[in-house]
Design goal:
DUF4270, mainly beta, 36% strand, 2 domains, 12-stranded antiparallel sheet
């Protein structure tokens, strides 16, 4: 028997009742009950529940060491555009000068490979363009503190990082560029030819055993790194592997008299210094005002529409102001509680991928995520997997088991003055742009809290 059922049922069979809380911004909730009652069960209607919903912009999204170099731009209908520029340091894996003394510099190129997931977001049928630029200031991580007001640090920030909002300057002139049609499932690698001047300079330093190439620390003082910048007309964001190669190519005559080629290869040696700068432009949409300076837009201002989006850090805020009063009713014993989220996309087969799973952050009074809803009978993060709908009108859904949440809500003050943030899950939260738009009905989000309970006289 469920742990919330505190009373012992007597010899009479008690009926089970269902409370369905249909959620939307400032929408009154209703309770639908079975019509059978016994002498020791009282039935009453509750219609005072409301759910407040809004769309929230998260701050301080960690973006370094995700393993994904995100580059590109995509325009999402009714939501605006997202864009990612990737920055990274380069380093030597060996400081041995193994270049033959007779070698001559040939060329410099940057070799990129798609991520193992072959991830993309947007329209890949069009030509995309990337340009490579030399960073003009050192990359550095940031350590968050509570600040003078001792505000909380988001639970997803676990140490020093480079956050996605951070921008570092880079030279306006490009070292190289590449235009291509991203058949992402078939591409083996992308090869970008770079300016030979910088390649020849590094080549000469290696041959001369220059102090600048004696260690990665020295080299990074001389060469801050590279930025991969998408063209403003791009239509897709592509994930590339961080196992790239910066190749200084040379040729020489071997002892056998034949011409031979070789390369000194630099790679990303410090993953903490590879990150993605993520920006967005919501001009002309219902979410135009949503930003880091205006972090919340109520669904009453967006026609009931709300969404969650990875990378850009958008979550849907949910609060149930009357729920605790219902839970504290001593005549009520809850048997089951499910939060059901319907999406406007019935399947995952789309150029704009939706999250495979969602989670629920718990945000404090400052709107900072400080914890998360755990699995119903465990301590790990509860993840609600996507259940596909169909093309005949049934929406896709995400379903959370909130029985443990309600138990805590009833027994402690842990969730007092807290709200829930519907979010994509990590690590995709920081390394993809997956987006779920919540379905609407009569200009209200289709979010339901279904509670199965027994009520006693």
């Amino acid at each position: 028997m469920n742990q919330f059922l505190k009373r012992t049922l007597n010899k009479f069979a008690l009926p089970i009742f269902t409370l369905i809380v249909a959620s939307a911004c400032d929408k009154d909730m209703s309770v639908m009950l079975d019509n059978s009652a016994t002498s020791n069960v009282g039935v009453s209607a509750v219609d005072s529940f409301t759910v407040h919903t809004s769309t929230v912009q998260l701050d301080n999204m960690p973006s370094s060491a995700t393993g994904a170099i995100l580059v590109g731009k995509a325009v999402i209908p009714n939501l605006g555009s997202v864009q990612s520029t990737s920055y990274f340091r380069l380093g030597f894996t060996s400081f041995t000068n193994d270049i033959p003394t007779t070698a001559v510099f040939d060329s410099l190129n940057l070799v990129l490979k798609p991520s193992t997931s072959r991830y993309y977001y947007g329209d890949t049928t069009k030509v995309q363009k990337f340009s490579v630029h030399k960073i003009s200031e050192p990359l550095e991580t940031t350590t968050l503190t509570g600040g003078i007001q001792n505000t909380a640090i988001p639970i997803y920030v676990t140490g020093p990082s480079i956050f996605s909002k951070r921008k570092f300057t880079y030279e306006t002139s490009e070292l190289g560029a590449l235009s291509f049609t991203p058949h992402i499932r078939a591409i083996d690698s992308l090869d970008i030819k770079l300016n030979s001047g910088i390649g020849k300079e590094i080549f000469d330093m290696i041959q001369a055993n220059d102090i600048k190439v004696a260690s990665n620390e020295n080299f990074q003082e001389y060469f801050n790194g590279l930025a991969l910048v998408p063209d403003k007309n791009n239509s897709a964001v592509i994930a590339l592997s961080d196992t790239l190669q910066f190749k200084i190519n040379y040729s020489y005559t071997g002892t056998d008299g034949f011409k031979k080629t070789g390369a000194k290869v630099l790679v990303i040696t410090q993953r903490d210094f590879q990150y993605n700068n993520i920006s967005y432009d919501r001009t002309g949409t219902a979410f135009e005002s949503l930003s880091l300076t205006n972090k919340e837009v109520k669904t009453s201002a967006t026609g009931g529409v709300t969404f969650v989006q990875s990378g850009a850090g958008v979550v849907a805020k949910l609060s149930f102001p009357s729920l605790k009063d219902f839970i504290l009713d001593e005549t009520v014993s809850v048997n089951k509680a499910e939060l059901v989220i319907e999406t406007s996309t019935p399947s995952m087969n789309t150029m704009y991928p939706i999250p495979g799973s969602l989670m629920l952050f718990v945000a404090d009074h400052d709107g900072i995520p400080v914890s998360y809803i755990t699995a119903a009978y465990g301590s790990g993060i509860q993840q609600a997997g996507f259940k596909a709908g169909n093309q005949t009108g049934r929406n896709g859904t995400y379903t959370f088991n909130l029985i443990s949440y309600l138990k805590t809500l009833k027994s402690t003050s842990t969730y007092d003055d807290k709200t829930l943030y519907l979010s994509t899950v990590t690590p995709g939260l920081f390394s993809t742009f997956n987006t779920a738009v919540i379905a609407t009905e009569q200009a209200k989000p289709k979010i339901k809290l279904n509670i199965l309970y027994t009520k006693f006289k």
